Amino acid sequence: MHWKRAAALVACVLALGAGSPSAHGRSPELATALGRALAAPDVDPNRTAALAVDLETGAVVFRSNAGLSLAPASAEKLAVAFAALRLLGPGYRFRTEVAGAGELDGRIWRGDLYLVGFGDPSLARADLDALARQVASWGIRRITGRVLADEHHFDASRTPPGWKPSFLGVESPPLSALTVEDVQIRGSSGPAAAAASAFQAALTRSGVLVARATGTRRAPADVLPLALDFSEPLAAILREMNRQSDNFVSEMLLKELGAAVVRRGSTAAGARVVRAALVEARVPVAGVRVVDGSGLSLLDRLTARALVSILRAGFRDPSIRDAFVTSLAVAGVSGTLRHRLGRRPTYGRVIAKTGTTSGASALAGFVRRRYVFAILQNGSPVPYWSARAAQDRFVTILASS
Q1: Which of 133, 141, 243, 377 could form a disulfide with 107 if both were Cys (CB 3.0 to 4.6 A apart)?
Q2: How many domains would you assign to the chain?
Q3: For residue 1, what are the CA distances in angstroms to 4, 83, 155?
Q4: Residue 326 is part of a domain; what is its CATH number?
């Protein structure tokens, strides 16, 4: 973990104080065109913020309500990705363990097996099969006890604060330190119980018989490590999170930041860690409120100034630049921009994070390695097509300049 290095992060704050257009190197013609581009039917200009600056110098190209505190939608994920890369590192891997409480007697394990989750958001059936094969490689063919799932690495909260009840199961599965992709969660048993059942089935496929029913319980301290699985590196996980705007991954990563940095695997602890990382990087946090990782919480707030500062700081840090920038969707090519901005001059030249909820629309990223920008639009609701069209006009003008 890169926590010690985080305490000495270099200053990447933008010079965004008040001043005349000429003092910031702005072109009046470009600024006028960008302002016109943002005007859209039924999009409230008083609830719209935008900022575009020169990527290298920080000179302001366009600014409107840059310090206005607004709901960010999935642009929130940029703050989480930035903090995770700075504090955990691009090569960080989640782990899942199998441990035995008991003893090996020939081909029989006399005792229980524990499947212990440490927050891997990408854990899949194939990983359980790999863990089961490792258990079988000890020569174990029968287990007298139970397969028990341990999810204590995170707290028991299944959703973050400020979520609508309808989000659970639609926008994200229940949060747990032990969740397996595409494994159905039945009733109130929870993700860990479903994981235990899936792992027992994997053991059976590997020739290991478990006669007793599965359950959930925290593993005792004196267990024997039997199997270990690691996720892909964090850089790869962030590509999935940001390009596809994966809410579950972002929420799991936020809890892992809390667990890894302050030893508390909760959404609130992770949010505090993210805010502290922004402060350490000298990102302006006035008007910023981090409540969850995905941007779905009705309580989240960001500013265009903070988003641009995060993007610019990530770009200027050589230790995370590649992982941070390549996690974003590419216009006309990948992720949530695959079917958007797919013509010249934006095709392949706008790299950004999108954000959409009923009350917020956002686009923030880079244009031609020349500009960094952020647009936040709020409404009750915000008109989806008009807001997105204004964003597209804005970045098209930047790409043409």
Answers
A1: 141
A2: 2
A3: 8, 12, 21
A4: 3.40.710.10
